[in-house]
Amino acid sequence: MEDNINKPYKICDMNREKKKGIVASSLEDLIGKVPEKLGLPPENLTVVLECDGTEVDDEEYFSTLDPDTALMILHGNEKWSPNMPKCQVSLDQTDEVSLGEKGQVASLVGRLQHNLCHISLLGGQDLELLSDMDPDSLADIVTDRDNRIILEHIKEASGRILLEKRQAQDAMELLKLYHQSVANGAEDVSPPSQETV
């Protein structure tokens, strides 16, 4: 096995906004060069595979990586997230107020563009807005075809999550009713007599 061979790697920050090429002979060598390349502080750095977030935490595993492997450098408590296409929506606050519901939808989409997984954290009212939206009606805000496809996916996902949340609420209501009926049934039944025949 050949040690200390310089190999090229592609590194990026958590947001995938800063991307650089780097040559390193070891994991320690790579981590030592990150602050200069990406402008991150030198302490609390974690190296993960950019494609799936697998942590690269020892020299043995690092040595098995192919040249030009894409790596993500995380700092502190940063977490890996999948690379999701961004939907560009350009609205200022005046537009948001004057467009009413369309402005609210655009604002929600704008918030989701950084991490689409946050859709599961939205409340019922926001999910309803997204699931009821007509992506074609946002043509004046979102003109790119790929962005319209993303809007279709957001619409479908929000509808699914809204349905799941409603089903969970219905199940909880049924459980409450069941427990109430069991409790009421227990009160109606008198305790058995202690007398022996």
Automatic annotation (TrEMBL):
It comes from the Eukaryota. The keyword Cytoplasm does not apply. This is Cell death activator CIDE-B. Gene3D superfamilies: 3.10.20.10. GO terms for biological process: apoptotic process; regulation of apoptotic process. Keywords: Apoptosis. Coiled coil: none annotated. It comes from Danaus plexippus plexippus.
